[in-house]
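Q: Shikimate O-hydroxycinnamoyltransferase, please. Structure only.
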Amino acid sequence: VTFFKCGGVCLGVAFHHTVVDACGFIHFMNSWSDVARGREVTCPTPPITERTILRARNPPRPAFEHPVFKPSLASEPIVPAKDSSEQKPQNTQFTGAIFRFSRDQLARLKEKVKEGDNSTIRYTTFNSLVVHIWRCVTLARGLDDQQQTKLTVSVDGRKRLRPEIPNYYFGNVVYIVDVPLVSSDLKSQPMHYAASKVHDALLRMDDDYLRSALDYLELHPDLNVVVDRGGHQKRSGLSIASWGRLPIYDADFGWGKPIYMGTVVLSVDGLGYILPSPSDDGSLSVVFALETDAMRSLEMLIYDI
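A: Structure for Shikimate O-hydroxycinnamoyltransferase:
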């Protein structure tokens, strides 16, 4: 706990992602704050810790390919832009930033992503925002047109599995979705091109697919191998987790509701989060880190909507 001269208070908390995901962690924080304010010691919704909920089937029968657990794009060499004549220094500096998008800006993004699209897909705010960020980051990095870039999205499986898992399940139900594209397609094609790829990838994450993923992992007892293969693609990819619908501002320890909640360290290139507004005004904030030079370029692109 850090107390500031102005009277403000900062509470820093860490959790291990193998044990619990953001949804379970926020439930813990909100329950903890209820107890701190003198509310019922027994939580009205006690956490569920039953690990058999995510047990593989017997026998395991994976029915789908799961490329996120196979050799990833992260192993491919980075192709610098053709006009880049300098090698990046080994001690690359990273800069973290927070970009706020108002309700009106988010609405404009949803309109923009539908321009020229004849499909019946109804793109979500998340889909529109994350594709816009991905495209801007790709431009800011100056990637070569033939360089492959990958969007990695964290998906909460609670509402996708059958039967559904309650929000107060204390465990890790996060699944990873990878959407690879060639840089030139992301930069030159209409926004709905990439948005449709993201939409299709998320739509695929139903009970059958997620159960298949559990079975796939069951057949690979050395999880270090499959875990190391998938995941975030540094310097050419973007990894986004959305906390936009989590009640992250309900943790009142007696000092009032928080004015900001977010991660402390932003030092992984292209790793970020989408956060809701503390004032519940419909805005969203995107928090992530990039190499400092790329971040400077991004600041000139991000609000061109």
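A: Brief note, in case it's useful. The mean pLDDT is 88.
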